[in-house]
Write a structure and sequence with these properties.
With 445 residues, the chain is an alpha/beta fold. Helices cover 52% and strands 21% of the residues. Strands 1, 2, 3, 4, 5 and 6 form a six-stranded mixed beta sheet that branches. α6 (114-139) packs parallel to α8. The model is unreliable at 4-18 (pLDDT under 50).
Length: 445
């Protein structure tokens, strides 16, 4: 096999930088001379695909392609008659695919039509054999092993006998039994995971639907949100409270927000160890978790604009003595301008498990965002097109120290306006909602 690999490697190298029909034709000729008819046929096919008017490629594809089809026909005949059913099926499908591609290019290649019937018989025998093996393994409750055979049937004839039902059983029964064990151990979360996997296959396996609803109900958690009793930033707090409620409802199927509670505020935000308070609110509201938050230390600052003055050079050409054109670079003043806006506030929260009186997550974090602008501006109106300006003097700067001025020129038309305070507040609020969402994902289970 090594000589074959070497020849093919050389052909691939030959084609790396070339994609034209002639290159593929020449590569095919080399392969044919080496006796590699099968490989040559594929390259003649490629050559003709790239240029359907290539007469030489068409003639060669008809000649060499027919030899290739005859070879595959022989392979099919041999494998079919020696009982190698899967190999014979693959042989035939490969032969059909090649002849179909050739036919699309108006090149007719032939194989014995009787092989069509043999191909159908091969599929029937192959499916029968694998179905029997899969069916027996399902009876023995060897579901994983059974799927190997049932998938083989599914590949060629999904509707074969009761293959679909057997495959459903092989997939779902292990999951179902696992779910039952988890339910018996009151591990409803893991049971729900197994039942969800069943539903990805079918929604009507035994009583999995009813068990799913049972486990989902057991997993349902009620969350009670508390606003801070007093705040210097009521608009921010209202925004966060409303978005916290929406996020929990829309993103977490197992979390129910309690909206009709009389408890809008906690009497005391420091509820650590206050078991009576926690249990009293839990019993009155039915909440499994409390979420308490507050916003403090809001800051909005603008830095700049700061200006750094520098020299650039304008290209200027003029005639000297009416014959000679002279080019000079005149120094021009410009400023590099930078501005920055920052917006932040401190966000403090506590997530309390009301069932066991534990604070499962708490944090005070500074949520912040910043926006910066950087641009260039001329100190006086420019006297030429921007492409005539350079950040260095081309006549006085060594070539090795020169660089492409395109990025520098773009700074003269760059954005000069910072995001507004309102926009920045919206970005920070969005980050806070993400933090809240991640907390629920990690701890409300």
């Amino acid at each position: 096999m090594k000589p074959l690999f070497k020849i093919l490697a050389l052909v691939i190298v030959f084609l790396v930088a070339c994609t034209g029909t002639k290159k593929y034709f020449k590569a095919a000729e080399k392969l044919e001379k080496q006796g590699l008819v099968n490989e040559a046929a594929e390259f003649y096919m490629e050559s003709l695909q790239r240029k359907p008017t290539n007469v030489d490629a068409r003639i060669k594809l008809k000649e060499v392609g027919q030899k290739y089809v005859s070879f595959m026909s022989s392979e099919f005949f041999r494998d079919y008659n020696t009982g190698q059913l899967e190999s014979s099926i693959e042989d035939f499908e490969k032969m059909k695919a090649f002849t179909a591609r050739a036919e699309a290019l108006n090149v007719q290649l032939n194989y014995p039509t009787a092989y069509e019937d043999d191909y159908k018989k091969a599929i029937e025998k192959y499916c029968e054999k694998n179905y029997d093996s899969g069916s027996e393994l399902v009876k023995q409750k060897k579901f994983k092993e059974a799927l190997v055979y049932l998938n083989a049937v599914d590949k060629y004839k999904p509707e074969f006998k009761k293959n679909k039902q057997l495959k459903t059983t092989a997939i779902c029964e292990p999951l179902y039994q696992s779910a039952i064990s988890y339910i018996e151990g009151k591990n409803y979360g893991q049971a729900l995971s197994q039942l969800t996997a069943i539903h990805n296959t079918t929604e009507s396996y035994k009583d999995s639907k009813e068990l799913y609803e049972l486990c989902a109900a057991q997993q349902q958690k009620n969350l009670l949100l508390f606003q801070p009793k007093s705040t210097a930033y009521p608009l921010i707090v209202d925004y966060l409270f409303n978005n916290f409620s929406q996020t929990a409802s829309q993103s977490f199927k197992h979390i129910e927000i309690i909206n009709n509670s009389p408890f809008l505020y906690l009497p005391d935000n420091n509820i650590e160890g206050n078991v009576d308070l926690i249990q009293g609110i839990r019993k009155a509201s039915g909440a499994d978790f409390f979420y308490v938050f507050e916003v403090t230390n809001r800051k909005s600052q603008v830095y700049g604009p700061t200006k750094t003055y520098a020299k650039c050079y304008q290209k200027y050409s003029y005639k000297k003595n009416d014959t000679t054109i002279v080019t000079e670079y005149r120094p021009t003043d410009y400023a590099q301008v930078k501005s920055k806006r920052t917006y932040s506030y401190d966000f403090k929260y506590k997530l309390v498990n009301a069932m066991n009186n534990q604070i499962v997550s708490f944090q005070t974090v500074t949520v912040s965002k910043s926006d910066e602008v950087e641009y260039n501006e001329f100190t006086a109106p420019p006297k030429a097109n921007i492409d005539d300006y350079f950040p260095y003097n081309p006549q006085a700067t060594a070539p090795i120290a020169q660089f492409n001025p395109k990025a520098w020129r773009k700074l003269f038309t760059a954005n000069k306006v910072l995001k507004s305070e309102q926009e920045m507040e919206g970005m920070v609020n969005g980050e806070t909602v993400k933090l809240y969402s991640q907390t629920l994902s990690n701890y409300v289970k």
